[in-house]
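Hi Y.,

Following your request, here is the sequence exactly as I used it, all 200 residues.
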Amino acid sequence: PAPTTTNTRPGTTTSTPLLDTRRTWDVCRENGVEHLLTKPRSPTTTGKIERFHRTLRAEFDTSRTFTSLTTAQAALNEWVDYYNTQRPHQALEFDTPRVRFEQQPVGATDPSAVPARLGIGRPDRDQDGWVTRKVCSNGVVCVSWQQVSVGVHRAGQQCDVFVTPELLQFWIGEELVKTVIRTSTGEVRKKQAAGTSKRN
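Below is the corresponding structure, written out as tokens. Let me know if you'd prefer a different format.
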């Protein structure tokens, strides 16, 4: 199955210049991956990235000298692409990260049934699968007894939730706030919480 958490150090960015930190957070949120920040100066909590750095030093040969930063970045981008799409990983039972990331769980919802992602526009909320909730004063939204925090700063706001058999997507206005794995089964009986207006 696809990963459910990822760790990074505070203030770090990805190695690919086109995928900045903000986009990394968006990709994680859209795919139900919780992005956790590690404590500063705590190498024991960054095992995966430290293992990646060890592989990078061994396979990419970081002792090489490049003629320019552009040349070095191009070579690194090529290696990272190889690492993620072609290189087998023992920890993934010799799959590539790409294969694992793209795997759908058994019985997963057809991706075309999931609403548009952040930045692609407001999803159609007239289709089946939507419920409306009001964010509690502690920042929590509850759907079928599953409590999910969307942030205290959103307290009192209306939250539309797209419910699939596997996931819950929490939308406030046109922003996808959070995606989590669903822990309940069956149809959500309460479609609209008290104090909320009809979805637009």
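Residues 69-85 form the longest helix (17 residues).

Thanks again,
Q.
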